[in-house]
């Protein structure tokens, strides 16, 4: 959408009325909004996803599954969307090490494969949210089994250069925690970061499953809080929870912490 004249032509200092100046300015503003939105969408969402580079080409259900989720980053994207939809920049923040082009390529491939939905909002700058589909949400159980295997055979204290995000461990809670009859409710988990900000997670346990959200829970039946260092001790191979502050329903809190944490047996095997 292009205005027919420049703003200077529409509004010479000694000829036109204020009304015509305002009208011309609004026209230019509308054209700018459309141009920004079109440009941003063209950069963020290519019309066709990239082709698969290395399909297994085997008539086997595991090979077919790995064709969809076996690429680097795919399962971690599923993990980091377990708590709800995220924007592109939010996914970049929780996935350190992935390039902008890698993330864009992987998201478009996952949308094409039916693993994610992409919701566009008519805002300036444009907003695009990515969310798990029912198909990919079933992968949370797979992620839980993979995380448990990692705790049994590969878990150690943080290695030099590894990014630390307690939320990355907690987001797998739906695939790690098995509900127990008679124990239901929401646990709020708070992590005080090194910069003194606090991250909040709410894990809800019901008879039919477990869900997680990244927010505070006003109705929490139990609360668990600690610094990042104290959470590292609690979720690491030593499973030392002595630094965490636990209040409320202790059975519910223990169910959640046992579910997402490593056992001492697993730590010995990993060592």
Characterize this entry briefly:
By secondary structure, the chain is α+β, with helices and mostly antiparallel strands. It contains 13 helices and eight strands.
Describe the structure.
The structure is a single chain. The protein is an alpha+beta fold and 271 residues long. It contains 13 helices and 8 strands. The protein has helices at 7-10, 18-44, 61-69, 74-80, 88-94, 100-112, 134-137, 139-153, 166-170, 173-176, 228-235, 250-260, 264-270; strands spanning 86-87, 116-121, 127-132, 185-192, 198-206, 209-213, 222-227, 245-248. β5 and β6 (209-213) form a beta hairpin. α8 crosses α13 (264-270). It is globular, with a radius of gyration of 24 Å.
Number of helices: 13
| Residues in helix, % | 40-55%
Sheet bearing the most strands, described? 5 strands, mixed
Average pLDDT, all residues? 86
Number of domains: 3
Q: Give the distance, in angstroms, between the N- and C-terminal Cα atoms.
A: 65 Å
Query: What are the secondary-structure elements, in order, as H or E?
Result: HHHHEHHEEHHHHEEEEHEHH
The CATH class of the largest domain turns out to be Alpha Beta
Structural class: alpha+beta
CATH level-four homologous superfamily name of the largest domain = SCP2 sterol-binding domain
Q: Shape from CA axes? A: globular
CATH architecture of the largest domain: 2-Layer Sandwich
As a whole number of angstroms, the C-alpha radius of gyration is 24 Å
